[in-house]
Structure formats: structure tokens, C-alpha cells
Design goal:
The chain has 309 residues and is mostly helical. 73% of the residues lie in helices and 2% in strands. It contains 13 helices and two strands; from the N terminus they run H-H-H-H-E-H-E-H-H-H-H-H-H-H-H. It has a two-stranded antiparallel sheet with strand order 1-2. Helix 2 packs across helix 9 and helix 2 packs across helix 10.
Length: 309
Amino acid sequence: MTSAGLEVLLQTLISGLLLGGLYALIGIGMTLIMGVMKIINLAHGELMMVGMYIAYVLFSSFHIDPYLSILIAAPVLFFLGIFIQKYLINPVLKVEAIIPENQVILTVGIGMVLANIATIIFSSDYKTTPVEYATKAWYLSDIWKTSPIELSLSMAWSVSFCVALLITACLWFFLAKTDMGKSIRATAQDKEAAQLMGVNVERMRVFTFGLGSALVGSAGCLFIPIYYLYPDLGGQFTLIAFVITILGGLGSTVGAIVGGLILGVFESLTSTYVGMGWAPVGRFVIFVAALIFVPGGIMSLFKKKRLGK
């Protein structure tokens, strides 16, 4: 491989990892909800779109940096998620309907309502937050003058990736070290056993939907410095979150991180070596391959290896 080819490959892998880190944050929100509630939230991307519009309004009206807007968007999305779970999804779950997965159809409807409300308020025009650092980058030659190759790191992508890592680390601490986090994990693993141990399962379900919504809202704030915003944006990110969840394994936060990184790198490689328009096709290929070859997700392979199967 020539130095130019190696430079393109390394740059593609770096871009893929940065993208995958943000994808992982989106996937964790959905996999938490699927693990605890056992439902597919097809309004996940629209909740992210709401977070992006909050960041947009804060930036355009009050000049608040999109990264700082996480401090406002995440709590708003948390309470919006609690409202959706408590007053819309819970009543549907208690009703015996002809269609067994009626709550999935409900989340589709919620997503459509959110997208239409955004269209009414903001129109369907593309919105951006033109921050100064959006076009800035760090270069390898700045710190290694005699480097044989040149690599660059987009400042916006790098900061978004680091913030996503920080949020993921805080989430890990919450789930692993706090009583509330342990109760959520217990509910996800075995609802009946958790109830016998005194866990308020209904409370955990409501809280988890709020937590998943806050995570994807935070991801929206990290994406808006580098993405265009429009009301129908949510659909593609719902699909991305769904693919990550299937790839990593239902209910596995570690699997969502691994799945997000794999999907990000694969999309980046597809865009570079096949064409920009082929990235969604590559995403679909990964989804189908995961269903056929690793239906339990990547984490199921690690569990089998650990058990010696």
C-alpha cells in the first residue's frame, strides 16, 4: 500500500470511529428502553430531532453553544420521555388489543406527531448552527513536523466524540454503582425476580424511558454542529439506532457501544471506497448479516466464548 493509500485508510478509520462514538450514544438510549420495557421505540430518532431543535433555538436566540445546550435539552427530553411513557405508552400496554405490538404502532404515531409539530413551528427548511469551530481541524503535522503522512481531526467531531464518551462513562457509573442503576439492570434481566426483590418495576420502566430519551436528546446536541437539521431527520436515526441495537444485542449497553463503533467504521469505509450514496446500503447489509449470522448480537458471541461453548 502506498503512503497516500495508507493515509486515506487511516483517515477513514478515524472518521468512522468518531462517527461510531456518536452512533453508540444513540444506540444506548434505544437498547436501554428495549431491554427494560421490551418494546421497540420507533420515535427514538424524532426525540433526537427534538433535542436538536432545542439546541438550535438556544443557539439562534440566546447564542448558547450546542454543547452547553445539553444541560437544558437532556432534562427536557427526560421529562418528555417520562410523560410519553406514563401517559401514552403505559395505558396502551394495559389494554388487550387485537394487535399484540400495538405499543410499537403508538411510537410510530408519536414520532409522526413530533415531526409534524416541528414542521409547523420551524417549517421544513434546513437549519444549522454556524459555530466557529465547525470548520476547524487539528493536523498531525502540527505536533509531528516530520510525519510521513498527514492526518486531521475535525474539531467539532472530536469534541462531540469526547462529550459522548463522557456521557457514556457517567451512564456506566450510574448503572453499575447506584441503587437506581442496579434496579434498572435487574428489571432488564428478569422483571419477575426484580419484583420479588422489592424493585418498583413500573417506576423503573418510566424512569428508563426518560433516561433513554435524555441520552438521545444529548446525542442530538452533539450532532447539530456537524449536521443539517430538518423535521424529517428522525427517521434515519431511528433506523441507525435499531441496527445498532440488533447488532450489539438487545438490552446490552456494551453491545450498543461496540455496535455503534462497527457501524460508524463500516459506513465510513463504504463512503470512501464505494461512494457516499452507498453508506445506507452498507448499513442495511450489516443489519441483514447480523440477523442471519449473529441473531443474538455481538455480545452473545462474547458470552459463548466466556462460557466455553
